[in-house]
Specification:
With 361 residues, the chain is an alpha+beta fold. It has 2 domains: 126 residues; 194 residues, no CATH class. The chain contains 10 helices and 16 strands. The protein has a 7-stranded mixed β-sheet with strand order 2-4-3-1-5-6-7, with helices on one face. Strands 10-13-14-15-16 form a 5-stranded mixed β-sheet. The termini are far apart.
């Protein structure tokens, strides 16, 4: 058999240490959409600036997502700002034309908030994705206009203040993802569908990777001041997802908030192969042990086992985790369960049945 292990040249002698070394996680949103990266970059840039003792809070600012071609259309008087993302340059009283990494050009405007919006319109930027920064010490906000300021009704208000990634908040984020995108096949995107054939119960071959990708994106959007790491190697294995506070922090001050172990509970595989109850039970227990060992060995504050259930019947969290609940409590692993239905009709039928059963009780 041909050895396919990559040659690391002069680093071969250090291969074991390199393979065990956790990745920094910086740049972990590189595979996210430009809109999501843009939001995170601007949020982190503003937080970085506001940590400076000389930060300005006088006037609003706008950040306009601008690709390389769009930079050519930026007014000539705009100033090139290659290091804007460092937080060392003033933000207020300006319109910043930036890419998803936070670099680009800046243009001053005259007047108050109305002057800012008038300027955006007059230079033809009113239809571009825009974040409007309204600064106030301790209470700064960002108004997100995905279709530009011309679409005044489509705006989302975001707080610049950090939202801590507690177990409860992480659960809410994943529950929202589940309800909006994963609960039935009708809601799943074509490139991230979890089913080969839901009528037969056939799940995609790489279902857990697809779930991981979806959960990662949701966490990236919810916790914009934090790094969401995936597949971090260690002597105990690779973590699925980590929520880490490492932005602008030295290595010895990084805070490891939560580690998430994700498991998909399938009835059948992509070719119809059946998974026995015994095998599924072992899969759940393996997840418990992984969540504990990863979290304990890497000093995470919270350990979570998140199961996505694609089997025919929604047995409920108490039944699914019945065999491991006592051990999970001892190991301080939080157990979470989301059921994925095979059709909208399947969801309606189960929901009605659960309601009827509750009324009988």
């Amino acid at each position: 058999m041909v050895d396919q292990t990559p040659n690391l040249g002069a680093w071969n002698k250090d291969r074991d240490a390199l393979e065990r070394m956790p990745l920094s996680g910086r740049g972990s949103d590189a595979d996210a959409s430009n809109l999501l990266r843009f939001n995170r970059t601007v949020m982190q840039l503003i937080a970085r600036r506001e940590r400076q003792p000389y930060a300005e809070y006088d006037r609003a600012a706008a950040f306009v997502l601008t690709d390389r071609a769009g930079m050519d259309a930026v007014p000539n008087e705009a100033r090139r700002e290659p290091l804007l993302n460092t937080g060392h340059h003033p933000l207020t009283g300006r319109i910043h034309f930036v890419n998803a990494a936070g670099t680009g050009k800046s243009l001053e405007y005259v007047g108050d908030d109305e002057g800012l919006f008038d300027k955006l319109t007059n230079i033809g930027a009113e239809t571009r994705p825009t974040l409007v920064y309204s600064p106030k010490p301790g209470f700064s906000t960002l108004s997100w206009y995905p279709n530009g300021i011309v679409d005044e009704e489509n705006v989302e208000l975001q707080s610049v203040t950090k939202e801590h990634p507690t177990v409860e908040r992480i659960t809410e984020v994943i529950s929202s993802l589940h309800k909006g995108y994963l609960i039935t096949p009708d809601l799943m995107s074509a490139d991230n569908n979890l089913w080969v054939d839901p009528t037969k119960g056939w799940a995609q071959e790489h279902t857990e990777k697809r779930v991981q990708s979806a959960v990662k994106s949701a966490l990236l959007g919810a916790f914009q001041h934090y790094t969401i790491r995936e597949e971090q190697p260690g002597k105990d294995g690779r973590t699925d997802l980590e929520v880490v506070e490492d932005q602008d922090r030295p290595h010895n001050e990084i805070v490891h908030h939560a580690v998430l172990e994700l498991k998909v509970l399938r009835e059948k595989g992509s070719t119809g192969t059946h998974y026995s109850d015994k095998k599924i039970a072992q899969h759940i227990r393996d997840g418990l042990y992984q969540a504990y060992s990863y979290g304990d060995g890497r000093n995470f504050r919270e350990h979570m086992l998140c199961c996505f259930d694609m089997r025919p019947n929604n047995l409920g969290e108490d039944v699914v985790f019945g065999a491991i609940q006592t051990d999970a409590a001892k190991l301080r692993v939080h157990l979470r369960h989301w059921f994925i239905y095979r059709s909208s009709k399947h969801w309606r039928t189960c929901s009605i049945q659960l309601k009827l059963n509750a009324n009988r009780d």
